[in-house]
Design brief:
Layout: E1 7-16, E2 21-28, E3 39-44, E4 47-53, H1 60-63, E5 79-81, H2 87-90, H3 93-98, E6 104-107, H4 109-136, H5 150-156, E7 160-162, E8 169-170, E9 175-181, E10 189-195, E11 198-202, E12 225-227, H6 242-255
Parallel strand pairs: 4-5, 5-6, 6-7, 11-12
Antiparallel strand pairs: 1-2, 2-3, 3-4, 8-9, 9-10, 10-11
Helix pairs in contact: 4-5
Length: 270
């Protein structure tokens, strides 16, 4: 099952240095064959780190993947870089903390604020679902346990560390990182990583060019390898005035004496 949604192949990087060519590698641990569970593992120059650490969502077979351990000892991960605060990019953080991760978690100030709220909400929901399962005996497990709880979240949030956009941060070992605005939600960014002589860019989720709340996304100037969000890679957004379409729908509904229901989708998306 997992093979449908994970890509455990190691993509090697030939990283030149003064003494010899080293081989770092990248593994895609989520969002392969599905759009949730984003996680990239990078090991190079004596460092191991993740870009995003998201929860799988949706179908049961996807949610079950959240219970699977990472194919790496979490205690050996040095740090995590977050592109933004949505659950499918941050929701697995308490699980790696459970598994022994003690490094730093980096993101922009808004991303970390959103991640804190999202993780607390998810931890509470997990607790409540386990409590109901035990009360009504509808779980195969006895007792049913949450994926993580509020105590795990409380151990995760103190690991948050702020990164400012457009400032290069030196992580040592020839690794430098810079965040750039990408317009998806408040605080979201694409991440440019220089490892030795290689330039990697992780797009995160990309926003539209025109948004009433957010600045338009910046664009990377160059990259040796580009890891790009592709949720809408096989389609084009219609070129229409969304506000006019919404107005027409509301007026038609009112004219018919109908009821208008507008669902709220995800964090900051409505």
């Amino acid at each position: 099952m997992a093979e449908k949604y994970l890509n455990l192949n190691k993509y090697y990087l030939n990283i030149p240095n003064r003494h010899m060519s080293q081989k770092g590698f990248i593994q895609i641990l989520g969002a392969a064959g599905t759009v949730t569970g984003s996680k990239y593992l990078i090991e190079a120059e004596g460092k191991k780190f993740l870009v995003d650490c998201g929860l799988f969502q949706g179908l049961k077979e996807l949610r079950l993947l959240n219970w699977e351990p990472l194919p790496i000892d979490a205690s050996t991960i040095d740090f995590v870089l977050l592109t933004h605060g949505h659950l499918d990019h941050v929701g697995y953080l308490p699980r790696i903390v459970q598994a022994g991760f003690k490094g730093k978690i980096y993101g922009t100030a808004p991303s970390l604020d959103i991640a804190g709220i999202v993780l607390k909400d998810t931890g509470k929901i997990q607790e409540e679902e386990a409590e109901l399962a035990n009360k009504h005996n509808y779980s195969k497990h006895s007792p049913a346990k949450p994926l993580y709880d509020l105590k795990d979240v409380a151990q995760t949030i103190p690991l948050f560390n702020l990164i400012k956009t457009d400032d290069w941060i030196d992580f040592g070992n020839n690794i430098k990182v810079c965040y750039h605005t990408n317009g998806h939600i408040i605080g979201s960014a694409f991440i440019e990583i220089h490892i030795g002589g290689k330039k990697l860019v992780f797009s995160g989720d990309i926003g539209p060019q025109e948004d009433i709340l957010l600045y338009p996304p910046h664009r990377p100037k160059e990259a040796d390898i580009l890891f790009i969000e592709s949720t809408y890679g096989d389609r084009l957004h219609p070129k229409e005035n969304v506000m006019d379409r919404l107005k027409d729908t509301i007026l038609q509904t009112v004219a018919k004496g109908g009821t208008l229901i507008i669902p709220s989708f995800a964090v900051e998306r409505t």
